[in-house]
Amino acid sequence: MLTTVPWWAAILRIPFSIIGPIIVVICAIGAYTVHNAFLDIALMLWFGVVGYVFKKLDYPLAPLVLALVLGDMAESAFRQSMILSQGSVSIFWSNWLVGSICALAIFVMFWPLISKMMPGQARQRQAEAGE
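Below the sequence we write its predicted structure tokens.
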């Protein structure tokens, strides 16, 4: 791998107006070869547009990567829990440790709304915006 480092560095010198379309064509070929379906190319283009919008909106990349990596495992674990408890969500409150972790997760999820409703925080945000 170390012997190819100069080649990869040379690729970085190619202008994006040339290398961009090449990357799109290679991605389209790779997407098409999976199932030999045009739908895969359309999905590739759609997610490319979504990625571009996310980049323009300064959306953080780390949560998306975590969701992509951990999403399947979390879904499998949730399904297993629901089967074990016969569809009852009370399994997530079955003991103090699991209940406290679930409560903390819900609290963190709703923290932006909670902080906006706090009266002292509104004055502090107005003071910071005025400076």
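The chain has three domains: 13-58, 60-91, 95-131.
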